[in-house]
Amino acid sequence: MKFLVTGAAGFIGNFVSEQLCDSGHDVVGLDNLNDYYDPNLKLARLKRLDKFTNFTFVKLDLADREGIAALFADEKFDRVIHLAAQAGVRYSIENPLAYIDSNLVGMATILEGCRHNKVEHLVYASSSSVYGMNEKMPFSTEDAVDHPVSLYAATKKSNELMAHSYSHLYDLPTTGLRFFTVYGPWGRPDMAPFLFTDAILNDREIKVFNNGKMKRDFTYIDDIVEGIIRIQDVVPFRNAGNPNTSPASSKAPYKIFNIGNNKPIPLMSFIEAIEKAAGKEAKKNFMPMQPGDVPATFADIDSLQKEVGFKPETKIEVGMQKFVNWFKRYYQKSKGVSHT
After folding, report:
1. In degrees rounded to 5, what are phi and psi of residue 139?
2. In CATH, what number is assigned to the domain containing residue 237?
3. Residue 285 pLDDT more than 50?
4. Catalytic-residue membership of 37
5. CA spacing 20 to 30 A to 325: which of 91, 147, 234, 249?
């Protein structure tokens, strides 16, 4: 088949593109290569795909309505995996308009491309951040998610609502995947695994928010990719008998799933896993909770397991050892990296 993967120079999109190409599909990878973080890392990820003759890269912004429409019309994709977005909770507090352009306008251009070109399945990235102020654990796709605590989370919830409307109106099969703290080699420089590893290896202190009383459902990149690849083959269908009472499904061809490790890790245990992998102790600066943050995330993945027979299971010690090994190789023990 022919796939469009948006965010192909991003962390998850790069691995998904690699997996699809390896399976023999034709992949067009789209990215705008913005400078939210070091573009050199994005270019290095793209270089990993040079070995595939069935991969084509297109530099294009999601907000370019005419450009996206022309791409869809020219390429006639069978399926679309939409992973591009302006990421980051903290950045959304400082630069909210960047999220409107990328996450809302960008989702609209992708939905329109799929609608007008008979794409058979759109799989798109949502986020565990949609659970916001929810206190019931684990987070279930059956729960209402109406109280986001950041604009980033609000845009992801909006994406789910936009997808449902297109599924209902135009019979476009859509599946939203709520990712839980994805980490691993080639990961994003603005996330804790990267920031902490960089600081520890280079003898700088790490900021430990909420005085260390946090838990995260860290999910290793290979597990996320496996979930995406499996779910893109499960195309939702219109089901007139569906009672329409679940937030995660509908009479329309629409589904929502969590992808997480189903095992929250205390922040201090996470730090210990990095210390062990790095062979160095962290210098810790304990700080209060940041705005837009939540104390814990925990994915209920029963519906994912039932649908595709897969459950992420990579242990944090194993995943962080692989990440630290990659980090050392990639940065060659440099004295710090650029996060701009």
Report:
1. -70, 125
2. 3.40.50.720
3. yes
4. no
5. 91
List C-alpha distances in Å: 318 to 193, 273, 300, 301, 339: 13, 9, 22, 21, 25
CA gap 140, 298 in Å, rounded: 9
Pair 162, 108: CB distance under 8 Å: yes
DSSP string, 73-87: HHH--SEEEE-----
Of 124, 152, 166, 220, the active-site residue reads 152
Write the pLDDT tens digit of every residue in 271-282. Answer: 999 999 999 999
Question: Is residue 194 one of the residues assigned to a domain?
Answer: no
Structurally, the chain folds into a number of domains equal to 1
Residue 108 lies in a domain: yes
**Has residue 340 got a pLDDT over 70?**
no
Structural domain that includes position 104: 2-180+220-260+297-313
- 247 falls within a domain: yes
Q: What is the pLDDT of residues 102-159, one digit of tens each?
A: 999 999 999 999 999 999 999 999 999 999 989 899 999 999 999 999 899 999 999 9
Report how far residue 50's alpha carbon sits from residue 62's, in angstroms, rounded to the nearest whole number. Answer: 23
